[in-house]
Amino acid sequence: MSRWLRSFGAFWYDFVIGDDWRGAAVVAAALALTALLVHVAHVNAWWLLPVCVLAALGWSLRRATRSG
Amino acid sequence: MNSVALVLTVFVACAVEAVEALTIVMAAGLTREWRSTFQGMAVALAALAVVVAAVGPALTLFPLGVLRLVVGALLAVFGLQWLRKAILRASGYKDLHDEAGIYQRQVAAAQAASAGGRYGVRDWYAFTLSFKGVLLEGLEVVFIAITFGDNQGNLGLAALGAIAAVLAVAAVGVAARAPLARVPENTMKFAVGVMLTSFGTFWGAEGAGVSWPGHDAALLVVIPVIALACLGYTAVLRRARAAAALPTTVPVRSGEATR
Q: Is the pTM of this model over 0.80?
């Protein structure tokens, strides 16, 4: 049962997160920061997520090409 | 504009996955047995239909803001995965998806596997190979179709795009009687990655509470900006790879060698 659960979890992790978890972490952090800026600081930070997404992609590509 | 983008994105994403599923189905059917292969495919399609029927309406129960935040985040993460692979392949850092090679490997494995049936299925290997291939490739399509359809409030249109792609790929596959090795899969993956990332970014930020300048028209800027940035990344990586392939020895000027 635990083996089945582990492989089930591994499948969904691979399905959603894929090869580089950092991209998912950056997207989650950027969304949290955007919500904070909008609701607490009242800044309409529409620009933050696109910038972070493109930066995350660049970072991920850099890591992939450096590691081989 | 959004409806056209919705159908096109789902259609292309679905076509890419259908091409990959077709390779597996062809390998199972041509080397093993067609009846069991079709049974596996039918059971997988039924399972996918159940997922759509259960998850699609359930998602509409969430408030639109929450749905856009969660789905936007997932689409952006998913899109980044597609873009990462497509850019690494386009710049030569990763091998291109080779349908012909994958087909040959599947055929070799299918020929080596033992025969035998179970639960009324004549060839269990062909059944499971086809079932797994269609289910796993189909899950990605279902995820994209449901999230796009629900966010746009038009699940029917998304389903139409998905079904049209499956039918188109199946028709071409039947006509060619071979895996579709000439499909520009990486270009399609790149385009889908751009759309997933763009819509994910747009909806995710909206879900977090931002108001986009120009509202939906902002997508007309977000999509090209992300596409151009990705083309830029590809060009930079191609140049870096080409530079790394050049001989690294620096020509020595006369006289320097003796110093």
A: no
